[in-house]
Design brief:
about 475 residues, alpha/beta, eleven-stranded mixed sheet, two-stranded antiparallel sheet, globular
Amino acid sequence: MRTLEILIVLIELAVLLVVVLKPIPDLRNARWLLLLPLSLSLLHGLVEGTRWQMVPAYGIALTLALTFLASPTLHLPRHLKVILSSLGSLLVALSLLLGYLLPVFQLPKPSGSFAVGTTYWHLQDSTRSEPITDDPNDVRELMVRVWYPAQAEHQSTYSYMHPELTKVLARNRGLPAFMLSHFALIETHALENAPVALEIESFPVIIFSPGYTSHSSMYTSLTETLASHGYIVFGIDYTYETPLSIFPDDDLRFLNPEYTDIWKNTSWDDVQASIVAFRETSDTTAQRQYVSQYLTQVPYTARVNSWTEDVHFVIGELQNKANQYDQLFFRKIDQDNIGVMGHSVGGATSAVACALDSRIKAGINLDGSQWGNLLDHAIIQPFLWITAEKDLSASSADIDSFIYSQVSEGDFYHLSIGNATHTNFSDLSLWSNYTPLTQTGSIDSHRAIEIINQCSVNFFDKYLKERPNTIDEITEKFDELSSKNW
C-alpha cells in the first residue's frame, strides 16, 4: 500500500481503539482526532489518487467526521461502542486486505541508460482482407505500440493502460469492470511522443508479439527495459484477438470472443492421440509424422501463421518509412539488425517469422509452445527459448524441443526459470500479491522480470549489437536460471 493509505488505516484503527478504551481522560479535548482520517483521506486523494480498494476506509473516515459534528460528548453505551468500533475495524482491515491483493504496483525501473519514449502507429494493409469480420471490404489494420530511446524531457509519463482496456481485461476474467480501475494510478517510465534520442546514429529494432488475447501494455516492464538499452520496440496488438485495439478517433475494436474461442470445434482427444503416438516411438521419421499431425490438429497453428504475416507486413512498413528522408524517427532504425520476440503464441510466431523472413537477424520465444508452420523450414538465425518449469504430463515441451532440434541451424539456447509459470513472463505477476489470482509461480515477481529482461537484453546485445557476452554469464548470475535439455 502507498504511504498515505497506510497512515489512514493505522490512524483509523487508533481512533477506533480510543473510542472504546478511552485512554484519554477527557475525550472532549481529543475530539479533533475524529477529523484526522478524513483530512488524511482528502490529502491522499490529492497526492496519491483515490482507488476503490480504499472505499471501506474512506467510509470509516467520513463516519468518524460525522460523529465529530453530531456528538459533542461521545457518550454512547460501552457495548455499542465496542460493536461499532469492531465493525469499523473490520472495514478498515478489508481495505488493508484489498489493497494488498490488488496493489498500485510499481513497474521496475528500466536498467538502461536511455530515457524511454512511446507512441502508437496505425497501419493498414490494403493487400489483405480482414478474416475476422464479415465485411468483405474490410482490410487488415493494426495498432502498433512503440517504445524507443528518447531525449529526456520534463513531461508526464504515458499511462499504463487505457481505461477502456482495464474494463475489458477485468470483464474477460469474470470480474466487475471497475476492478482494475486503479491501473490509472500506475506510472510508467515512458514519455509520450518524446523526441527520439540523437546520441546514436541508429537503433536496432525488435518486433514484439504478446500472448494470445493479451495486450502489448501487459509487457511494459520488458518493453521499457529494451528501449532503455537502445532498442526500438514495436509491439503488435493483433486486431480482434487482443482485448482492445484503440484506433485513431477513439475507434475501439474489441476482442472477438467467437473467433478467439478456438477450441470449440477441435477435439482434444485427437491432439492427445498424436502426442501419445509421438512419445511411444523413438524413430525420428515417425516422430516428425506425428508432430506434423499434431500441428495440423492444434488450432493455434493457423493463428501463428496469420500473425507471422502481420510481422512480415510490419517489417516491410518499417523499411518503407525508413527510406523516406523526412521521417527522422524511422531513419533512426537500423534495418540490418531486426529482432523478433514474443510470449506464448507470440513466441511461437517469432520462431516461424525467423524461419520465413531473412530480414530478421535473431529471435526469442518466451515460454511459447511451438505451434505454426515451422517443421518444414529452418531457423538459421540465433534463437533463444526461455521457459518456465515444465511438467511433461501437462505440456508439450518435449514436442517443442523436438521441433527446435529439427529446424535450428544457428545458435540455439534453451533456458528454464525455476519456480516460474507461464504468466510470470508478463506484468501480470505484479498485478496481485496473491499468486493464486495471477497463477504465477513462487518466484518473486520482480526477480522473474529481472531475469527475463536481462536474458533478452544480453541475447539481443550479442546478436544485434555484436557485443561479446555469453549465456553462461547470465546463468551464473541467477540461481533460478538453468540451461535445459529435454
